[in-house]
Amino acid sequence: xxxxxxxxxxxxxxxxxxxxxxxxxxxxxxxxxxxxxxxxxxxxxxxxxxxxxxxxxxxxxxxxxxxxxxxxxxxxxxxxxxxxxxxxxxxxxxxxxxxxxxxxxxxxxxxxxxxxxxxxxxxxxxxxxxxxxxxxxxxxxxxxxxxxxxxxxxxxxxxxxxxxxxxxxxxxxxxxxxxxxxxxxxxxxxxxxxxxxxxxxxxxxxxxxxxxxxxxxxxxxxxxxxxxxxxxxxxxxxxxxxxxxxxxxxxxxxxxxxxxxxxxxxxxxxxxxxxxxxxxxxxxxxxxxxxxxxxxxxxxxxxxxxxxxxxxxxxxxxxxxxxxxxxxxxxxxxxxxxxxxxxxxxxxxxxxxxxxxxxxxxxxxxxxxxxxxxxxxxxxxxxxxxxxxxxxxxxxxxxxxxxxxxxxxxxxxxxxxxxxxxxxxxxxxxxxxxxxxxxxxxxxxxxxxxxxxxxxxxxxxxxxx
Length: 465
Fold this sequence. Notes:
Elements (H helix, E strand, L loop, with lengths): L14 H36 L5 H26 L1 H21 L3 H29 L5 H10 L2 H17 L3 H5 L2 H15 L11 H23 L4 H21 L11 H19 L2 H9 L3 H25 L5 H19 L10 H27 L6 H33 L3 H22 L18
């Protein structure tokens, strides 16, 4: 897989081209953030108009699962043809999905549009990390990643309210169609600036990448489908078959030494997976706890998530300032422990009478930890990616995100569903989920101790654990 050596980004490019590179990448991140926040807000309106309430969840999973294919293809094409090609085609697919969703006559068409968006979104996400790694020097990357985190702030604050107003006073279709100009601007600025970054090396063909992406998406889809059902022999078999389908292609795209948490890229990917699982496996059920246990309004429950989003951005900027003075293991451990502490503090919310302010403070602490740790592991991964191997590294990092979020929410949802069938209260279901998430965050703190890389590893020396 990938040897642990520093890459040599092109930092001699004109300042104007570098600014265009940065702005184009940030617009792509902002585009994804606006889309994600807005769709959550208007989907009830869409389902009421188009019918097909049974496909409500499919609107989200279609994007997520097909984005795995986009991540694999985007990373490979960024290496084979250069990031400009993958970025352009990713934006084109995203725009096509937006158009289909905006014109969708039924929920089935909307799901298809979201799937095409996922393909494009995955390609763009893989490309953005390649661009940061190859277009900016090592000491610039923490600041660029902090700006990427900031690109989520405005959508987090504005998108839900704006999408709701658009759906109420115009039409939900403009929530999708209104993003098309932003796609055009991102391409206009980003594609020309990325052309000078060139291509890297790639060991597999396009057909192999496509097959791997489809197997991962299909396998994960089967696993999530099994988790969503009542537990039984059929569901267990479906889960095992799904895991078998996804395991081999997943193994191929992940760096060697992942299970042994080898210092360098493997430790960064492993740490990131643990922290994503812990954070989003907790956050997905915070509104449920606040609404059902404490009788909070949806708006009040959302404040805890907004606070965490803002704290995440603050943590990212803090990491950028500390990166030159503190080691990666120290920052990774600090962030991981903040996440674990925030999750443990959230357990107090399972008791009736706990002030709701605890949720805001505790989850803001976890968000601060994610801002510190997430950027730390990403910078560490970039520092141990070889020149030309950025596509494979960005694919591994992107898939780690998707898998961590999917499995955490899927497993948590299965526990909540089982508790409902047994007639258990919400608090008794969420307690084990959040304790498990805190334990996983603690494991992330241990994995972070190996973030400082080992000596360069030649390809002949690489071996699976």
